[in-house]
Amino acid sequence: MFETYGRELYHNPLYESLLPYLGWRGWKALLQAPMGVYVVNRLGERLAREAFRRYLLFDLYGEAFRDISTLADVPLTVGMPVAFKARDVFFFLPEKSYPDKIAKYVAEWTFQGLTEGIRRYYNSREGIQHRAAAHLMALAGKAVALYKAYEELIQRAKKAVGMERDVLTAVAHAVRARAAYEEIRMAR
Q1: What are phi and psi of 2, to 5 degrees?
Q2: I need a surface site. Which of 14, 16, 82, 157 has the fewest CB within 10 A?
């Protein structure tokens, strides 16, 4: 299996055998990768880099970002905090992949069993950490995008004259207030 850039993708026969059992696209996506992967991929390299640089709270979710970093299309150079594990030093210790972790929660290999297993995983300690990391990453991306919009509006307001300048300044400050609100939502 190759992607468009010519790199070989990780191929797991377990994925291929389980995907027909999942009827919904969302369940298929959660079986293939944690939800944080889709959030980071959607943000892109620029917004993800800025979010990881600006908000240090992502260091608390290093274990979740360890799983996310291996499956995301965004390079590690964006500053994604990744937890250190003993596996990094002692290579003989096996490391569990994301599908292996989910398979531990699946009782039976039917559509109902898979969906219940995925739900159980995301209600476990590790799954809650994945959910929280994805949620915070989405909020951080939104806040960073709003701050970038604020900066752009302020630059346009400096070039504008008269009433247009006042309107652009007012809109810019409203956008900045919304970005601050998103940061408050992150803190909750």
Answers
A1: -125, 145
A2: 16
**Contact at 8 Å (CB) between 66 and 83?**
yes
What is residue 83's DSSP assignment?
A: -
**Can you tell me the distance from the alpha carbon of 35 to that of 132, in angstroms, rounded to the nearest whole number?**
10
Going by the DSSP 8-state scheme, the letter that residue 20 receives in this structure is G
H-run or E-run covering 117: helix 111-123
Mean pLDDT of the chain: 78
Q: How far is CA 52 from CA 20, 23, 58, 179, in A?
A: 36, 35, 7, 16
| Cβ atoms 119, 22 nearer than 8 A | no
Question: Would you tell me how many other CB atoms lie within 10 Å of the CB of residue 59?
Answer: 12
| Calpha distance 128→122 (Å, rounded) | 6
Three-state secondary structure string covering 120-179: HHHHCHHHHHHHHHHHHHHHHHHHHHHHHHHHHHHHHHHHCCCHHHHHHHHHHHHHHHHH
**What does the pLDDT average to over 118-139?**
86
Q: By the 8 A CB rule, do 46 and 69 touch?
A: no
pTM of the model as a whole: 0.74
Q: In 33-97, where does DSSP find H-type helix?
A: 35-54, 62-71
DSSP letter for 8, please. B
Distance CA 100, CA 92 (A): 18
